[in-house]
Amino acid sequence: MENILELFQISKSFPGVQALKDVDFFLKKGEVHALVGENGAGKSTLVKIIMGVHQPDSGKIVLEGKEVKIHDPNHARSLGISAIHQELAVFPDLTVLENLFIGWQPGKFGFVNWKRMREMAETKMKEVGINLPLDEEVGNLSTAQQELVQILRALLQNSKIIIMDEPTASLTADETKVLFSTVRRLKNHGVSVIYISHRLEEVFEIADNVTILRDGVKVLDKAVKDITPSELIENMIGRKLETYYPPKKAKPGEVMLEVKGISFDGILKNISFKAHKGEILGISGLLGSGRSTLAKIIFGILKPDDGSIYLEGKEVKINDPMKASMLGIAYIPEDRHRQGLILPETVRFNISLPNLPVIPRKVLVDIAKEKELSQEMVRRLDIRTPSVEFLTMNLSGGNQQKVVLAKWILRNSKILIMDEPTHGIDVGAKNAIYHLMVNLAEQGRTIIFISSELPELLGMCDRILVMRKGEIVGVFNRGEFSEDRILAL
Known about the structure:
Layout: E1 3-14, E2 17-28, E3 32-36, H1 43-50, E4 58-63, E5 66-68, H2 73-78, E6 81-84, H3 96-101, E7 107-108, E8 111-112, H4 114-128, H5 143-156, E9 161-165, H6 173-188, E10 192-196, H7 200-206, E11 209-214, E12 217-223, H8 229-237, E13 255-264, E14 268-276, E15 280-284, H9 291-298, E16 306-311, E17 314-316, H10 321-326, E18 329-332, H11 336-340, H12 347-352, H13 367-381, H14 397-410, E19 415-419, H15 427-442, E20 446-450, H16 454-460, E21 463-468, E22 471-477, H17 483-487
């Protein structure tokens, strides 16, 4: 297959940062090419250069054999290059048909040709095997269907290259299968896909070739069939990885948390389980199974309709998050940006916030002590930040997640509920979070680990609870659980 897109010796610098250095990248016609690397490796910068958001400092871009200068995203689209980002660019109150043609409706003399638009959409859907309700408002569609709207829009604009940035981040397992089927059909129709993901198992499932960036430099370009998962990870992080999931030596101890008969608003139905001191207890289940609702009840965000919660054998009433934190319960939410952090504030502010009651003060908070404690947590968790006065919004996703963890570890929480703690962070940051979880468990903390990624639950947990439609439908001990057994429930 010939190359449809070629990038030669691309370099790009920003103040104080060499984002890309002499990067070559080659995309074949009808190929799915994975672009991977840790946060800050240069993936986003490379994509923005391809889309015309940034101009390279040096190097050249060749599209279908001709050198081009891509001035802006509109120019990129006119050349047949489209991007589908993690944050969906759709208008929820408009129909599918309106979303497909917004900004470029066919027609004459200011009149929109709705019949022509419908014919074009139906023809393209039939051609690539996409089925969407054209008259339905996009806000009523699933996340997967909304992504298909963006893919179809790109195809209607005659895109030959589609860049997909973390396309499965918000999808269920079944929705991911639908997306992958669509990607394979696109490939069969000669469309080229640049696929960016932190979920490395997806690289091996969907990609033909993979390019790895590290610190702005291309370190590997290889056929996926010729690379192992360990080789992929080691090239991304730049060191040998003894174990991706660190071994846990300590065995779980006495019961720390017991939940009895919790029900809530038809979402949870008679939930009962125990979590032990020093245990990593996994909770598996599809989106909508009730996992996050259960976490919010234990942390006092929601109040159950029925049931009881016991800590170290004593019944407790958890009326709000403040009560939960006083009892030694911490909650690391799935949406760290909106629920776990105050992004415009400093690292020091975010780490200190739940710890103000324990920071010495006379009238006002002791800022020096606050800074000292924050710096200690930055060192302990290896948070990559210029200083504790650095704004949290400017940290990478993995370091933001460490800040969320730091504030609760400083609080000496006995129970940490982690809802998708590795969501959207790179492989090196994931590995750091895994090691931190094991260290906390071996200190006697109880970890409740909610995740949509079965491999990490299998690699990290002492036990796994499986939830479906608000009920616990299975409990597996280490040595008993497997991906097949869990998926069968």
